[in-house]
Design a protein that fits this description.
This protein is of the alpha/beta class. The protein is 32% helix and 22% strand. Strands 3-4-6-5 form a four-stranded mixed sheet. Strands 1-2 form a two-stranded parallel sheet.
């Protein structure tokens, strides 16, 4: 299941899926937070991926970032115990923010990095347009991977 709010991104993805003759994918053109909060059942996901979310790099806009402490709790609610959360970003400050938000909840998540920060890019993660753009600008891409550690669900 893919969720994307940017309509041209949905169209491009549908085109790529058709070209590759991949049919076991469902795409929702919607606000991801609304879908995650209202549609996806608790403990129903084996994994979640968040690749190159809008970094909202200006400090006054940081509150608009999708990854916040409340998002971490929501992810914990939706993932099955042992489920994986994988994020990637080319904004160093956002990578640090994601790392801190998840690391602040050791009761819910384990960082899968050997150095307790970032993991090498897994072969399973595709290279995106946003990643290529960031690399052209000299940005380093950081991948983060966390495992859901318990069956305890956070209270909302």
């Amino acid at each position: 299941l893919g969720i994307e709010v940017h309509t041209p991104g949905v169209g491009h993805l549908l085109l790529k899926l058709a070209e590759a003759d991949i049919g076991n994918v469902r795409i929702m053109s919607a606000d991801a937070m609304e879908i995650l909060q209202q549609v996806i059942p608790a403990a129903s996901l084996a994994g979640m991926q968040l690749f190159f979310p809008d970094p909202w790099h200006k400090k006054k806009h940081h509150k608009r970032r999708i990854v916040q402490p409340s998002f971490v709790e929501l992810v914990a609610t939706l993932l099955q115990p042992g489920g994986l959360f994988h994020a990637a970003t080319d904004w160093e400050g956002y990578a640090e923010h994601i790392l801190h938000c998840f690391s602040d909840r050791p009761d819910l998540f384990e960082n899968l990095s050997e150095s307790n920060d970032y993991v090498p890019q897994p072969d399973s993660r595709p290279t995106t347009k946003f990643e290529r753009r960031g690399q052209r600008l000299g940005h380093s891409v950081r991948d983060l991977m966390f495992r859901r550690t318990s069956d305890h669900l956070p209270a909302f």
